[in-house]
Amino acid sequence: MESILVIGANGQIGTELVAELRRINGAERVIATDIKEPASELKNNGPFIQLDVLDQVKLREIILENRVNRVYLLAALLSATAEQKIKSAWKLNMEGLLGTLELSRELKFRLFWPSSIAVFGPSTPKDHTPQFTITAPTTVYGISKIAGEQWCEYYFNRFGVDVRSLRYPGLIGYKSEPGGGTTDYAVHIFHEALKNQSYESFLSPDTELPMMYMKDAIRATIGIMESDAGRIKIRSSYNIAAMSFTPEQLAAEIRKHISNFRITYKPDIRQQYADSWPHSIDDSCARNDWGWQHEYDLSGMTGDMLQHLSQVLVHH
Predict the structure, then answer these.
(1) Is 141 assigned a catalytic role?
(2) pTM for the whole thing?
């Protein structure tokens, strides 16, 4: 029986991706790995192996022993963290990808690797950012992502490696804690709204960024991986989008549910990262090529997020 491997399963995307893949394919067929010990949910609901993605020998063993035919490579250092740890971010983000591309070339599994809107920079058109445009990032994370996109395309063109990728916008989910990314304010604000009815934003009120509800991101991720190879026309990474909003607009939406919610603003270094990113994304290539469609807009996401997160916080 063939199985699916998720590397970096402890993170914001990994936690929810593993749960959904196990729901679809059966728990025993989805192997979660991470360098850290996982949350109990991840460990108790199916196979978990502790793994550093840079340990290529162990990774190869796991893939061979379990007849893995799909790998989701999510291990990475995110934007704000990467700025603090430049060399280790480059090492993890790049060597992790290159090593896995080499293994995919040898062992012929299908590979998913996430890119990000961080590949865009200050000189990129800000509104409806096209699929093919200036990618001149000014962050460590963005530089590693644009390099990664080019490696993916190279391995597809040169060796036929079946690699697929999405440029995630900011992702909002209730199952894991905010993880040090610039767009994570949009997760943190919900926690603070429910706990304290107030939030201090590290971005200014009118900072518009492209965002996506985690449920849509997981559907997109599995959707591109399960699409027929002939429909995947872009092997660097696809733009995907759902909604764009500012901290002020999000706060107004939260107030419809928590009327006394207050937001204050104290922009920090992350404002500079956000200012270098697009306001909105044109994802028509993903929609036309393999049928991507989002389900959640700002009001749908806000209602769903508050409902689920309030249950999560009660149990903690």
Answers:
(1) yes
(2) 0.94
